Amino acid sequence: MLTLLKNARLFAPEPLGLCHLLIADQRIAAIVSADAEPPVSGSGVGVSDLEGRRVVPGLVDPLVHFIGGGGEGGFGTRTAELTLADALASGTTTLVGALGTDALTRTPANLLGKARELAAGGLTTYCYTGSYQLPPVTLTGSVGSDILFVPEFIGLGEVAISDHRGSQPSAFELARLASEARTAGMLAGKSGIVFIHTGDAPTHLEPLREAARTSAIPVAQFLPTHINRTPALFEDGLRFAREGGRIDFTTSTTPELLAGGEVPASEAVARALEARVAPSRITLSSDANASLPQFDEARRFIGLRAGRLGSLFEVLGQCVNDHGIALERAIGVASTHAADALKLPRKGRLQVGSDADLLVLADNGWVLDEVWALGRKVYGHS
């Protein structure tokens, strides 16, 4: 199947001006200037004229709770699963699923099944094996075999540090697990990334530094999230990035979390760039369908809301419109950099050979007109 997208103002993420894109099945087969003749024509080619609208890569979200999360306030506080309709309308075309606090009533098998359900609907989905607690829950009996033998499992996560809900892992345990994930990733041609949930305890990111200092594991093998959770954690995250690590900011939030000191994700990106953190070390994730719990000073649960997948696209717009970050640079933190960290070379860029995952933006305002995933329009007007 051939599809020609004409007159796209292309950000790949670098700005390429007005272009024609040819899609062959699921991938981009050609990109030519709009001044040139289209690469193909004829009755067998589907044609869509985008009339100069901006086209950017589909977003890559490294943390989504496909099957819900929560439960910190009892069974009545479990959050719902992600629906396919919400996912298709979000602008996120590549999603990585994780368990969270609850790895007892939710399992890796549930997670994998939901990943395949969303993939059947047209999206690209992956998973992390494990959860907050250690020893990690797995599908096949070990972290290494999950990553090596199950195509969707690309790393380990969300392992909790500096959080009262985690297992308080030692530096040795973190290094050992990272080594297992890294080696299995090498054997399978995957990233073997260790995705880290970071709580608000004053130890912040020190467990990861100690694991790297006391082992041969590079600090970039870890990708800690929620770095905008508190001002102190944010500052420690900037130091961590300057030391060679990566940092991830959470786009889902609530008025209560912001009032409690959370740094808005778009502001966190802007401040990190102003602090001369290398852009490639910054990513965004939605934490979609996770619980965003509130605890009092005694760590007692007092309420929660659920994360939203659409918050990733919203924060990308805030980076551009509220903080003046160039679109091509903002795309990196919402797509390209996560694709690189997760070792997904066909994601996060619009170039020949890449998967045809792309967003068509409206002429006015920060609005999605169309979402294309793997060469097929999955959202937008017919």
TrEMBL record:
<feature type="domain" description="Amidohydrolase-related">
    <location>
        <begin position="55"/>
        <end position="365"/>
    </location>
</feature>
<dbReference type="InterPro" id="IPR032466">
    <property type="entry name" value="Metal_Hydrolase"/>
</dbReference>
<dbReference type="InterPro" id="IPR006680">
    <property type="entry name" value="Amidohydro-rel"/>
</dbReference>
<feature type="binding site">
    <location>
        <position position="101"/>
    </location>
    <ligand>
        <name>substrate</name>
    </ligand>
</feature>
<dbReference type="GO" id="GO:0008237">
    <property type="term" value="F:metallopeptidase activity"/>
</dbReference>
<dbReference type="Pfam" id="PF01979">
    <property type="entry name" value="Amidohydro_1"/>
</dbReference>
<feature type="binding site">
    <location>
        <position position="229"/>
    </location>
    <ligand>
        <name>substrate</name>
    </ligand>
</feature>
<keyword id="KW-0378">Hydrolase</keyword>
<feature type="binding site">
    <location>
        <position position="291"/>
    </location>
    <ligand>
        <name>substrate</name>
    </ligand>
</feature>
<dbReference type="GO" id="GO:0006508">
    <property type="term" value="P:proteolysis"/>
</dbReference>
<dbReference type="InterPro" id="IPR010229">
    <property type="entry name" value="Pept_M38_dipep"/>
</dbReference>
<comment type="function">
    <text>Catalyzes the hydrolytic cleavage of a subset of L-isoaspartyl (L-beta-aspartyl) dipeptides. Used to degrade proteins damaged by L-isoaspartyl residues formation.</text>
</comment>
<keyword id="KW-0479">Metal-binding</keyword>
<feature type="binding site">
    <location>
        <position position="287"/>
    </location>
    <ligand>
        <name>Zn(2+) 1</name>
    </ligand>
</feature>
<feature type="binding site">
    <location>
        <position position="226"/>
    </location>
    <ligand>
        <name>Zn(2+) 2</name>
    </ligand>
</feature>
<keyword id="KW-0645">Protease</keyword>
<feature type="binding site">
    <location>
        <position position="197"/>
    </location>
    <ligand>
        <name>Zn(2+) 2</name>
    </ligand>
</feature>
<comment type="similarity">
    <text>Belongs to the peptidase M38 family.</text>
</comment>
<dbReference type="GO" id="GO:0005737">
    <property type="term" value="C:cytoplasm"/>
</dbReference>
<feature type="binding site">
    <location>
        <position position="65"/>
    </location>
    <ligand>
        <name>Zn(2+) 1</name>
    </ligand>
</feature>
<dbReference type="GO" id="GO:0016810">
    <property type="term" value="F:hydrolase activity, acting on carbon-nitrogen (but not peptide) bonds"/>
</dbReference>
<dbReference type="GO" id="GO:0046872">
    <property type="term" value="F:metal ion binding"/>
</dbReference>
<feature type="binding site">
    <location>
        <position position="132"/>
    </location>
    <ligand>
        <name>substrate</name>
    </ligand>
</feature>
<dbReference type="InterPro" id="IPR050378">
    <property type="entry name" value="Metallo-dep_Hydrolases_sf"/>
</dbReference>
<feature type="binding site">
    <location>
        <position position="165"/>
    </location>
    <ligand>
        <name>substrate</name>
    </ligand>
</feature>
<feature type="active site" description="Proton acceptor">
    <location>
        <position position="287"/>
    </location>
</feature>
<feature type="binding site">
    <location>
        <begin position="70"/>
        <end position="72"/>
    </location>
    <ligand>
        <name>substrate</name>
    </ligand>
</feature>
<keyword id="KW-0862">Zinc</keyword>
<dbReference type="InterPro" id="IPR011059">
    <property type="entry name" value="Metal-dep_hydrolase_composite"/>
</dbReference>
<keyword id="KW-0482">Metalloprotease</keyword>
<protein>
    <recommendedName>
        <fullName>Isoaspartyl dipeptidase</fullName>
        <ecNumber>3.4.19.-</ecNumber>
    </recommendedName>
</protein>
<dbReference type="GO" id="GO:0008798">
    <property type="term" value="F:beta-aspartyl-peptidase activity"/>
</dbReference>
